[in-house]
Amino acid sequence: MMEINVTLSNAAAKRIAEIVGNEAGKQALRVSVEGGGCSGFSYKFDLAEAPEDDDVVIAKGDAKVLIDSLSLVYMAGSEIDFVDNLLGQSFQIKNPNAVASCGCGTSFSI
Questions:
Q1: Contact present, 96 and 77 (Cβ < 8 Å)
Q2: What distance separates the 2 farthest-apart alpha carbons in the chain?
Q3: pLDDT for 29-76, tens place per residue?
Q4: Alpha carbon 25 to chain centroid distance?
């Protein structure tokens, strides 16, 4: 079993709990890493009903995040944050493995 070292900020946990609470049948936010985006990899956010067999579940308060084992490799040591500023509201991943990222904060390279 891989060590779970992805964390949720308080702001992210609060926002995830709000979003999931408003979606019937959904229990968690799924975060995954895909090839593509302006820097090589990009993050994808979806609402999920239940964990898959290879998911790691990260819980904080009423919030749950699901990350599949393949995506977890790219996200080791990351913090999932929720930012609300003049540019808008968004989830952002603070990934110590990323050597480059785009301005929008949704893609990165390793």
A1: yes
A2: 40
A3: 999 998 876 667 888 999 999 999 999 999 999 999 999 999 999 899
A4: 20
Q: In which order are the strands placed within the sheet that holds 79-85? A: 7-8, 79-85, 88-94
In angstroms, the Cα distances linking 91 to 1, 2, 65, 94 are: 27, 24, 12, 10
Q: Tell me how far apart the alpha carbons of residues 105 and 91 are, in angstroms, rounded to a whole number.
A: 9
Supply the DSSP string of 52-109, one letter for each residue. Answer: -TTEEEEEETTEEEEEEHHHHHHHTT-EEEEEEETTEEEEEEE-TT-SEE-TTSSEEE
Phi, psi of 16 (to 5 degrees): -60, -45
Predicted confidence at residue 63, as pLDDT, reads: 96
pLDDT, tens digit (0-9, with 9 covering 90-100), for 79-96: 999 999 887 888 989 988
